[in-house]
């Protein structure tokens, strides 16, 4: 039952990630929601099989680094373009 909840969280996060491609902030939020659902699923898996929780700490470290990198890119994009619209970017340069 709990595994089904984590799977539904993952599917809804993938749906939002695939459908919201206009704004970078919405894309980053959906990526963080996907990471949260994967963390939840991993925690359930490790609890069921009685394994160590050290991998969860490593996973959380990578997720925090991914979030900080995404926010840095978002700030850089807003400073250079004035908004977080992906459609306003040009292929030729920023």
What's the short version?
77% of the residues lie in helices and 0% in strands.
- Outline type: elongated
Mean pLDDT: 83
Total number of beta strands:
0
- Which range does the strand content fall in? under 5%
Q: Count up the domains.
A: 1
CATH architecture: Orthogonal Bundle
Structural class: mainly alpha
Specify the helix fraction band. over 70%
CATH topology grouping:
Helix Hairpins
CATH class: Mainly Alpha
Instruction: Supply Rg.
Output: 16 Å
Through-space gap between termini: 47 Å
- Return residue spans where pLDDT drops below 50 for at least 5 consecutive residues: none
Largest sheet: none
**Secondary-structure element string:** HHH
Total count of helical runs of at least 4 residues: 3
Describe what you observe in this structure.
The longest helix has 28 residues, at 54-81. The protein has three helices and no strands. It has 94 residues and is mainly alpha-helical. The mean pLDDT is 83. It starts with a helix and ends in a 13-residue tail after the last helix. Helices cover 77% and strands 0% of the residues.
Which tags fit this structure?
0% strand; mainly alpha; single chain; 94 residues; Helix Hairpins
Q: Secondary structure elements and their pairing?
A:
Layout: H1 2-19, H2 24-49, H3 54-81
Main location: membrane
Protein name: NADH-ubiquinone oxidoreductase chain 4L
Transmembrane segments: 24-46, 52-78
């Amino acid at each position: 039952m709990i595994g089904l909840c984590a799977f539904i969280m993952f599917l809804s996060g993938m749906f939002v990630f695939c459908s919201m491609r206009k704004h970078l902030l919405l894309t980053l939020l959906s990526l963080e929601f996907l990471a949260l659902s994967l963390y939840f699923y991993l925690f359930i898996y490790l609890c069921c099989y009685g394994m160590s929780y050290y991998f969860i700490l490593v996973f959380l470290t990578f997720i925090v680094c991914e979030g900080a990198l995404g926010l840095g890119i978002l700030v850089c994009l807003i400073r250079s373009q004035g908004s977080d619209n992906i459609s306003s970017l040009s292929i030729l340069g920023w």
